[in-house]
Design goal:
The protein is an alpha/beta fold. It contains nine helices and five strands. It has two domains: about 130 residues, Rossmann fold, CATH 3.40.50; about 80 residues.
């Protein structure tokens, strides 16, 4: 899956502002942007981290009173970061960023709506670089996974590599790279079936040898 096929989620409370930001990002950055309205609880955003098409998430300014929320933008960023450590996260605000940057440690970048509108190329390029690094990291994980599976099939997997394989599979499962995980599962089932078949054939061969020796 290429970057252009992935989705950049925009969590925003104001419909008109969200539509304008999406239009700007899609026209200037060739990004596929989808808007997410504020949700009742932090856990309701877990699907954004779990979606295999997710390229990154922009968290817009969320007003607790207006949206009856028990959390703020920092809480959303921190929550998403715990779910996907490498996921690109951006904070977009209408306020001065100085007081937010210290608190928004989970964000890859913090900028205002005005800055984005006045200098779209600067901020969109910054986001694209972060999204590109994440996409490359996913590709490298998948390539390493395939290499370890090949070694497993050849029965050349060391103990450390076995642990690494388990870790990569768990990471991809958390990222919901379902197609890759299913391919891994199919390959491992095939490997297990082949080993079982070999064991059965060896058992038959041993039995034939014993019969031959008895005659």
């Amino acid at each position: 899956m290429t970057l252009s096929e992935r989705v950049l989620w925009l969590i925003a409370g104001k419909d008109d502002e969200a539509d304008a930001i999406r239009a700007l990002l899609e026209s200037e950055g060739a990004l596929q942007v989808r808007i997410v309205k504020p949700r009742p609880a932090l856990e309701d955003y877990s699907d954004l981290a779990a979606d295999s098409t997710t390229a990154g998430v922009i968290v817009g300014h969320l007003k607790r009173r207006r949206n009856d929320l028990t959390y703020d933008v920092i809480d959303v960023l921190d929550y998403l970061r715990t779910l996907r450590a490498e996921l690109p996260l951006f904070l977009l605000t209408n306020k001065d960023t100085a007081d937010l940057e210290e608190r928004a440690g989970a964000a890859d970048a913090v900028f205002t709506v005005r800055e984005l509108e006045q200098h779209p190329h600067v901020y969109i390029s910054r986001m694209q670089r972060a999204l590109g690094r994440y996409e490359a990291a996913l590709s490298q994980q998948q390539q390493r996974l395939r290499a370890l599976l090949d070694r497993q099939i050849a029965d050349n997997l060391t103990s450390d590599e076995s642990d690494e394989l388990a870790g990569l599979q768990a990471e991809l499962e958390r990222a919901h790279e379902s197609r890759v995980v299913k391919a891994v599962e199919r390959q491992q089932r095939y490997l297990s079936e082949q080993k079982s078949l070999i064991a059965q054939l060896e058992a038959v061969a041993d039995r034939l040898d014993r019969l031959a020796n008895e005659q």
